[in-house]
Structure formats: C-alpha cells, structure tokens
Amino acid sequence: MHRESAMSGQEGITPRQRLTVAQKLDHLLNLHAKPGNDDKPSYKTMAAEIAAQSGETFSAAYLWQLHRGERTNPTLRHLSALAAYFGVPVSYFTDDDVARSVIDEEDLARRELDRSMAEAGVSAVYLRGDLTALSPEGKRMAADMIRQIRALEQGTKKPPSPPRA
C-alpha cells in the first residue's frame, strides 16, 4: 500500500496525482529556503549558480516560467542541471514515483531530526534553520549525534535507537 506523500499536504495534490515539473521544482525551492526567513533563492541567483556548477545556462525568466508552470517541457539538459543543483536524481523530474520517494525520504528525515531535537530540548530556531539545509542523510546523522550526546550526558552506555519507518 502506498504511503501518502508529503506533497499531498499541499493544496490540491493527491497521493497518486501526476506531479508537474512546477510542483516538483516548488518542493525543491521550499527545501532550499534560506534558514531563518524562509526566502527561496532568487531565480537570478539560481541561474548563476546552476551555470557555475554545470555550465548549463538558464535565464531567470525561464526558471520563473518553469516554477510557475508556464513552461512545461524543459529539455533533458535543463532537467539534468536542475537535478544536479538540488542534489536529486534527474529521474525526480521524469518519474513521479521517484519524486514521491525523494519527498517522502526528506519528510521522514526532517521528522526524525525534529523529534531528536525536541527530545534533547533543542529549541533554537537558528539551529533548526541551519539543519534544514542538510540532505536527508545529513539530517539522520545530526539526529544520531544528538541522541548520542544526550545518552552520554545522561550516563547511559548505549544511545537509544531511533524509530525507523
């Protein structure tokens, strides 16, 4: 049975609905919002960073059109450059099951990190902001480190294992 995707919480998206490039790009932009103020990177900044990273050129207007759904058929070169920029497989943009898997993995890692931080009494918003920029694996590592530090400070020999879905 398919688990409900984290994206299904967004207005108008159901778990098995076909996802658009605009919806997938919006999710990635929300994940990469600057810590503390939830600002997404500007299209101009993204275009410059993508060009520097991959050599693929985008105009800020083209990125805006992709994000708003006004352009719906980007080239594979553009999708590959976007995927590399956001650290996801190119199939994130071409296969809805892969997109949902990436989204669900990110959601699970975020919830695990939030739970570990709450258990450790970490409530500093700036710390949460810095940690949200981590990959799912980075979030899991941070959650594990928090659990280990808490266990050491409490004098237990073995840190508690995190619940895994």
Any key phrases for this structure?
single chain; 165 residues; mainly alpha; 434 Repressor (Amino-terminal Domain); 8 helices; Cro/C1-type_HTH; DNA binding; Lambda_DNA-bd_dom_sf; Putative cytoplasmic protein
Number of helices: 8
Strand residue content: under 5%
Residue ranges: pLDDT <50 for 5 or more in a row?
1-13
Largest sheet entry: none
Structure description:
There is one protein chain. The protein is mainly alpha-helical. It has 2 domains: 20-94, 434 Repressor (Amino-terminal Domain) (Orthogonal Bundle); 103-154, no CATH class. It contains 8 helices and no strands. The radius of gyration is 18 Å and the shape is elongated. It starts with 20 loop residues before the first helix and ends in an 11-residue tail after the last helix.
Write the layout of secondary structure elements.
Layout: H1 21-31, H2 43-54, H3 60-68, H4 76-86, H5 91-94, H6 96-119, H7 125-132, H8 136-154
Helix pairs in contact: 2-3, 2-4, 6-8
Domain HTH cro/C1-type: 59-93
GO molecular function: DNA binding
Organism: Streptomyces platensis
Question: What would a concise description of this structure say?
Answer:
With 165 residues, the protein is an all-alpha fold. The protein folds into two domains: 20-94, lambda repressor-like DNA-binding domains (434 Repressor (Amino-terminal Domain)); 103-154, no CATH class. The protein has eight helices and no strands.
